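User: Second chain of the day. Same drill as before.
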Amino acid sequence: GYGLVISFENEALVSPIKSDLLSKNLSEVNQGDIDALQFDFIGLKYRRFALGYAMNFTQQINIGVTLNYLTGKGNHFQHFLVDGNEFSTDKKIDSYVANGWTDPEHKFSKITFDIGANMAIGQHFRIGAILKNYGNPTIKVGETEIQLSQRIIAGIAFRPAADLSLYMDMDIKKTDILHNGEDSQPISLGIEKGFFKNKLSIRAGFQSDLATEYFVGKKANSLFGFGFGFNMKNFLVDCAMGLDASGKVSNIALSGFFIVQ
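Assistant: Same format as last time:
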């Protein structure tokens, strides 16, 4: 059948611009080195329209394709660390992130393509893989081109009962997902429980990065997720929230799904 997804997304990345400051001895550091330190801001505020189609290839194998249309605005700018208007001790990290997508200036639109397949193994297991962002498409924000890295994600699901599922998925290889020149390799674990004949579902999960030194803990690039969804015939609504390793809210998502049989 066919499915249509419409989502509203805000994304931002704040990262330090590389400097030779850390390669110097402390006695060699001067005020000019500190004044030159900068942070790079990339922010996107857009809507995603996704049209998907899935079919039974065999009795055990399903395949599907998704066409995504992204349209919105973005920002790309830098600020010096010593700029007191942008950086201060009383600001929280979420205010810096929100600064990335606040009042975006540059319009963009892009079409991307995903393809996936999954196969049932016995009564309780299912394995699958998805190719996202086929061909490494790019979004142009002003003079900056942001590449949406092509990813191959594999996963396995265990469903011991009709209302209980456990999931694990991971990227097969390292890619620059965050557009900051550094590779990452996410891995996720999750559990979902259904209620009222699966009209309502509640889930929790954990995500970390296999490309980093630490898998768990405050130094790890990890995320704890919680969410719920409910469906009314062919219409589904899903809400999700992510917490970072320190327990702070890092993202919130609200999505609506309409399934056409």
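The longest strand covers residues 61-80.

User: Great, on to the next one.
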